[in-house]
Amino acid sequence: MFALVFLWFGISVPLVFVGSYIGFRKPAIEDPVKTNKIPRQIPEQAWYMNPVFSILIGGILPFGAVFIELFFILTSIWLNQFYYIFGFLFIVLIILIITCAEISIVLCYFQLCSEDYLWWWRSYLTSGSSALYLFLYATFYFFTKLDITKPVSGVLYFGYMLIASYAFFVLTGAIGFYACFWFTRMIYSSVKID
């Protein structure tokens, strides 16, 4: 208990104050172009630019980059097997980061080309939706590979996989958002306004 209190008051609390001090000293982010105060009307979108459809499609590619490795991770967690290929896991993580950034940038570009400027949350949800496929794969893994019959064990499994899926959602969503944020700042900073 003393170690937890020390971690909280000795590490977490000082880091909060250091981070807030650094954050208040940094200048505010400025937009690369001047924006109009009155928002433009978004024109009629094509069927494939529907937010739900594009978000669900955007999550397939990042999940596809990790689902083979996910089998080995789930096997090592739930079937008590050793996992020892961390070098390959690091390469898969790099591929996941690149894939999340690319799919978010591509779908954000399509969205901006169709004059839909509401890209902030869609960029987060596009790559973050791969967590939905991760949870669906965990459900498939539960019914095909595991021999769990007790309800408490099933609730424990799905609870842990829900937490892991949420963490994956936050990770991939943050990657997609920051990639789109960088992309939109780069393309709009090169626009010359007379």
UniProtKB/TrEMBL annotation:
UniProt entry tagged with the keyword tRNA processing: no
Annotated organism of origin: Abeliophyllum distichum
Family named by the database record: Belongs to the nonaspanin (TM9SF) (TC 9.A.2) family.
Cellular compartments annotated: Endosome membrane; Golgi apparatus membrane
Membrane topology: Multi-pass membrane protein
Transmembrane segments: 6-24, 45-78, 84-112, 124-143, 155-183
Name of the protein described by the UniProt record: Transmembrane 9 superfamily member
Pfam families, alphabetized: EMP70
